[in-house]
Protein 1
Amino acid sequence: MLRQSALAQGLVRCHVCGHLHPLAKNRHARHCKVCGGLLHARRPHSLQITLALLISSYALYIPANIFPIMTVTQLGMTEIHTIIGGIFALVEKDMAPIAVLVFVASILVPLLKLLGLSALVLHVHLRWQGNTRWWMRIYRLIVFVGRWSMLDIFMISILVAVVDLSGGVSHVIAGPAATAFAAVVVLTMIAAKSFDPRLIWDNHTAL
Amino acid sequence: MPPLTACPECDLLLKPADLITGEKAVCPRCGYLLHRAREQSIERVLALSIAGLILAIPANFLPLIGIRFMGNSNESTLWAGAVSLFGQGLWLVAVLVFLASIFIPLLNTLLAFLISVHLHFNRPHPHLAHWLRWLQHLEEWAMLEVYLLGIIVACVKLSDTADVHLGFGLYAFVAMLLVNAMLTTSLDEVLFWQRIAELDRKKHA
């Protein structure tokens, strides 16, 4: 009886505490008797919710990269930085390692997350066959790296607070791209959370 | 029939492994880490959550870093980061920074404290299951380690033009980060749910 999914055996695993329950005979939602969490065999509307959040993230990715993320004023000189511009400024100041770090966290990770999640949604929806373990690795990587994109937002919050010198000598103002970028990070994190990885396996065992 | 379990990430039906301390159980199909039996999980979580709550005070209110530039100087705390973003009208980003760097880490530590203190003294509480559920949901939204990397990048950027010095708050912040990371790895969720279910049964018996 093992080597089968719990669902195929008429069992539902509670998302929260892991307790197994028999599948409900009617369609009414039930609660787990151990922890009180709502029971469902797979996250309801997993693909639709993930897709909706992904589309919003793609849309917000554009203003996040076009608009200035911060404005630095020093001794009357004002510099406006976009995300890319900030990275180039770091390279010019011979801070290549930090530039690579910011590039990975602010450009590479969000982009790979968007593309990776899109591929996962397509994979499940179109029932692509292939190496299931490989898709699982992509999913876990996306979940793991998601939070690290907040690096740029945290860095800006620190700069805004600390570079605020009296008499207008020096100050930093956060720009509108910060809101758009933070929204991309949060929405893709929720998108990754709403994607149910068990769909990858259902897809495969349905053959 | 023995109680069965299922892998949370691939739904494979499994017989639960009976682990001794230090052993771990991995899903044979997808490789998910199902359970890692921790030594004295409840006691360690209790001790670490108390340490985390104490460290939260200096980490939040003492200056993290300070700069000096052309005779002017300024210092910044964890609070000031969120507050000054709010002051510039970016309230959405400010709320997010506040949640990820201050509120959720603190709430998680508080929840871990409440749960472990009840389990340690065998006191049932009607909200134990809710607390652990919230703790599991909120875990990934506490981003102290990302914030630390943000501080490091900000320091490197600033060191180009200004004198940067580290404040006592930063040391408290790093200590709080380490304590929270240890707390997360010491918390044996399978054991916690078992104990909560046992306490619940005892109360109804």
Protein 2
Amino acid sequence: MHNLTDEFRAAVDGPPPSGIDVDRLITAERRRTRRLRWAGGGAALSAAVAVAFLVSPNAPAPVENPDVGALAPVAADCPRASVGDRDRHGVPEYTRDPRLTESCADATARLTAALRPALDTVVPGVTAKGFVLNEYTNQYESSTPITTKSGAGRVTVMVRTQTQPVPTARECKDGCSHEVRPDGTVIEVFDGTREQISHAVDIYLPDHTQISVHATLLAEGAPRHLPLSIAETKALALALTPDLTLFP
Amino acid sequence: MALDVESYREYVTARMDGLRRTAYLLCGDWHTADDLVSTTLVKLYRQWRRVSVMDNRDAYARRVLLRVWLDERRRPWRREHSTSVLPDHVEARGARIESVPDRLAILALLAEVPPRRRAVLVLRYYCDLSVEETAAALGCSPGTVKSQAARALEALRARMVGTKSLTQEA
């Protein structure tokens, strides 16, 4: 077998110069390791920042993504709105709480407690219905029927996280008034040009809560405005109720 | 614990030539051998903290080289060979060996042996490893090494008929 060994040794005798540069190999490997570390560190940092942002109690919800502002799944004890067939779109689009750190049950109770005295002030003797979660629009809403001798109507208060950029004055046309208050609150009031809506008020709070108050006419032929004077100023007052926010 | 680059550089400088020759016997091409050794050295560098404290670093380096080569053999482009000239006729294997220089004849023979058997031959008869060491390097049993070596030698003998005898012992 020594012959085979000799043959092997003869075959590899006098090899050409090596093209391998150990220093270059080491440098390339160090560069690769450094890149991997940077990539890994960057990914970890991004994840940490994202998590910190999402769990921060003061973090405002981004305004672009409609599903943002939702971490905890909606608890089973959350009161939910009964949505008519016409308003259903397949499955609920939003299956999580509209806000970050407060459970749905706590939020609805707190908002209801804030709304009731305010509505009682605007329309004496009327007790506001409790807030419920509308999973199709991802908002808390309270819809209170009001009946008088001259007609029937409904006052609906909706509280949601802002999901769209705050409208500008330029976009407010045809029966719309636009106001920006010194504290940054944007108020838009629509008159009764919309069908079956006497007044609509949209409030955009600086903390990214959006509050809408609609006074609707339910009965065909009913007076255009509710006799209990859910007038513009009162609807506005209702919408500006303190503590009617998702970020107290 | 910091990576001891100097000891790595020292080890690689001392062993690179042997690794290149082993790789050349395995693949039959110096450029490919350099590629195989480069890959092996990079893998060694990554594991140097662990390798530097090993008793038998050479065995580890050889094992890495074998793995790199066997992995390389499995790549699809290694199954194809391009040529600029189409052969007019199929050459008889025995006749071809006579036409190439002696030092390339063994490589031509080796090239016709399946990769693992070729590895057995190189480790046993070039690196002078025992059956047990060869088995450890290839990750198989000593019995497998023996049978692979026997079949590889038998194949070599069959192809060397009429040229010269490589084996003087059984």
